[in-house]
Amino acid sequence: MGELRPGETWTFLYHVVPILFSPYNPLSNDEYVIGLSRSGSRPQVLCIHGGATYQHFIELPYAPAHEDLDGDGLNELDTTFKSADYLIVTSEVLLRDADFAGVDLLLQKAATLAREKRGVLGYWYPSPYAYDSWQYAYTQIKEYITPGVPDSSSNRGYWASRLSDAFGHPDVEDAYLLILGEWEVIPSPTYNVRHLDIRWTGGGRTDTVRLSDNYFADTVGNDKVPDLIVGRIIGNTPQALMKPIEASLDVMTGHGFDRVSAVVLSGYEVGSGDSFV
Length: 277
What we know:
- It is built from seven helices and eleven strands.
- By secondary structure, the protein is of the alpha/beta class.
- It has a domain at about 20-25 and about 70-250.
- Helix 3 runs parallel beside helix 7.
- It comes from marine sediment metagenome.
- One of its GO terms (biological process) is proteolysis.
């Protein structure tokens, strides 16, 4: 950013993507305000000239929960949530354990992807009432995205009820859940597949699958059949997590992927003790 001379102006444009929060760190509709922080302080611009510091407070907060620009009976906040069939879920608190500054840029990139995909972000926060709540995050998140009438006792439907009908009726429309972070951020359960009787020609059988995100995909009927499309971005650093997001954005703009190369993954070669390829 260069120097702003007397009489010159800068115009800043930005996009805003709403965030769903877990019940342990809720945000009321009235707190979704652009131009006013959650603590009530007003954003300000600081300028330094001739050794003196000047500040200007932004005076025009915008509350989408109190606006209905298209007159459809839904406020702009609910309209945005109801149009979202793409949800990016992470725990920004646990991400920040690695690299505080890098996480800010990562979340900006995630918000950009959400905007391009007509989606929103979802932030899961550990329960302050249970020291081991992180271990069971997958059960909480599963409740949030399970369709049905919202249930305050279990938090069932806490997120799904606010999002597109693709989450409310995933058997009819496609909804996409993207998990951002490895299992230390958003854990996955060990999946019991004993009922499938998976046996191998080289001997042995597979009864459990560790770190299975199919658990999140099965939101209707608990029949282990995926109802949502689920993906996960993994990486040990915010920079590594950003790479797939940037690649997706490049593809959406017509760059970065020419289908010249491909990677194919498969399961065990012969027996359950083989290395996974």
